[in-house]
What we know:
The protein has 158 residues and is mainly alpha-helical. It has helices at residues 4-33, 70-85, 88-99, 105-118, 149-155; strands spanning 36-40, 46-51, 56-61. The longest helix has 30 residues, at 4-33.
Amino acid sequence: MRDPDQAAASVQAWADGLAEKAERYRAAQERTESIRLSSTNTDGSVRVTVRADGSVTDLALSGRARSMPLEELSAQILATMRRAQSGIADEVSDVMAEEIGDQDPETRSLMVDNLRSRFPALDEDDTETVDEEPPPAEDTRGADNRAEDSEDEDNNPW
C-alpha cells in the first residue's frame, strides 16, 4: 500500500497543475477576446474591423464610398471583411502559443484548424476580389411597387 502522504502530495500536484492550466486558458481567452483586426480596401473607401470570432465591430466608409454603385460597395465591404477575417487564425495561434505553449497541442490545433476553415488565408491574388463591373441587381419588386421608385430615390443616402 502507498504512503498516504505521498498520495496526498500526488493529488495536490495534480490539482495545482489543473489550476495552472485553467489560468493559462483564462489568460488566452481574455487576450483572444481583445483581438481586433482591420483591413482597408485599396482605394481607402472601406475599412472593416473584426473580432477573433469574425464578427464585425466597426465599418467605416469614406466619402468615396458615396459615389460607388451599391453593388460595388457591397462587394467591397464583403471583400474587405474577408481580408480582415483572414488574419484571425494566425493571431489566435500566436496567443495560444504564448499562453498555452506546448501543454495542450491537440486543443490548440483543433481551435486553430477550425478558425482556418472558417476564415481562410487569402492568396496574394485575392487582395482585391471585387469585380470591376458587378452584374446589375435584379428588380424583384412587382409592377405594383414601381411607383415607389421615385420615393425610394428620395430616401437613398447615396
